[in-house]
Design goal:
With 331 residues, the protein is an alpha/beta fold. The chain has eight helices and 25 strands. The strands form seven sheets. A seven-stranded mixed β-sheet has the order 5-4-1-6-11-8-12, sandwiched between helices. Strands 14-17-20-23 form a four-stranded parallel β-sheet, with no helix packed on it. Strand 2 and strand 3 form a beta hairpin. Helix 3 packs across helix 6, helix 3 crosses helix 7 and helix 6 packs across helix 7. It is elongated, with a radius of gyration of 23 Å. The protein starts with a strand and ends in a 17-residue tail after the last strand.
């Protein structure tokens, strides 16, 4: 089995962070988003990977080659971003002839037993009930328990079960043939070549596709979701840092994830804070935030904040001599 991980998106909703860093490399609970995906697949015995890269793809390639030297990997460049089906079509030479593939979009973190996918007798997709299905690809089930219809961002949804970016496909060459016809016929939905439409093509050709519910699904495309995901994962066992070194005159409120060689002094850090490597924090209060590598934070109060790598923030220091009956408002 090959794992196909599309990571070519520009991550526009997370700008300015994604001007210099691709979204899959943004840290959450001490790990890059893409590492959650790769580690889950490796744990299930998957060692053959195809990464579809584009925007800032050289940084993703360098990260994967450095952090995962042992896996078999191929990098395919998606020159123009024309939708999820187009991304898979871009990698057609790397996956055609495969018995099955596992597609895992690289900007989501999913809490699911991947063994259910890998052992399923038919093709299957990951699903989760959502409050507003109009923003997602939605599935409808038939009486036989298999998916009878998939539709991308329906105006009037008939189901609240959204696809979460996980697909195990057994009919690989048939899928590629359908996508090829989509592209040659310029058949687009919402201005893009959608994988949802290709899956509907498989269903129309009699392919059985089942739905696998996931426990949790974090679409890390917005800063507020990124911070919520960071907090939720830090609350789970195995993600927060333990056995932290001594930080001078500093209070650590767990759970936190603090990288290597950080210098923290005269501060309060936590809860729900992820800090990258080699970051300096002094005379500050930081909570519910994600701080990148080599950042410098001094004399500030931060909450619900995203601070990129190599960023520097310095607050306002005042020396006051205030008499009786005085009111000062710095707002």
């Amino acid at each position: 089995m090959k794992a196909v991980i599309p990571v070519a998106g520009a991550g526009t909703r997370l700008r300015p962070h994604t001007y210099t860093q691709p979204k899959p490399l943004i840290p959450v609970a001490g790990k890059a988003i893409i590492s959650f995906i790769i580690d889950q697949l490796i744990d299930q015995g998957v060692t053959d990977f195809v990464f579809i890269i584009g925007y800032l793809g050289e940084k993703i390639q360098l990260y994967i080659e450095t952090e995962y030297p042992a896996i078999s990997k191929e990098f395919v460049v998606q020159q123009s971003r024309e939708g999820s089906a187009h991304a898979i079509w871009t990698a057609r030479k790397a996956i055609q002839g495969s018995d099955d593939i596992f597609i895992f979009f690289g900007d989501t973190i999913v809490d699911v037993n991947l063994g259910i996918f890998l052992n399923a007798p038919t093709s299957c997709v990951g699903i989760k009930e959502v409050n507003d299905p109009r923003e997602f690809g939605v599935v409808e089930f038939g009486e036989d328990g298999f998916i009878k219809k998939v539709i991308e961002k329906p105006k009037i949804p008939r189901s609240n079960k959204a696809m979460v970016g996980l697909y195990r496909i057994k009919e690989v060459d048939q899928l590629l043939s359908i996508i090829d016809k989509q592209i040659k016929g310029e058949s687009q939905t919402h201005g893009e070549y959608q994988l949802t439409d290709a899956l509907m093509g498989l269903i129309n050709h009699g392919v059985k596709i089942s739905g696998v519910p996931v426990n949790n699904w974090f679409d890390c495309g917005k800063s507020e979701v990124l911070l919520e995901t960071n907090a939720m994962l830090l609350d789970k066992e195995g993600y927060a840092s333990s056995n932290l070194p001594h930080y001078d005159n500093t209070i650590i409120i767990h759970p936190v994830s603090i990288g290597k060689d950080c210098k923290i002094s005269n501060s309060i850090v936590g809860p729900h804070v992820t800090i990258g490597h080699n970051t300096q924090i002094n005379y500050s209060i930081v909570k519910d935030s994600i701080i990148g590598n080599f950042a410098r934070i001094e004399e500030v109060v931060l909450q619900s904040s995203l601070v990129g790598s190599d960023a520097a923030i310095k607050g306002l220091r005042q020396s006051l001599n205030i008499g009786d009956n005085t009111e000062i408002d710095f707002s």
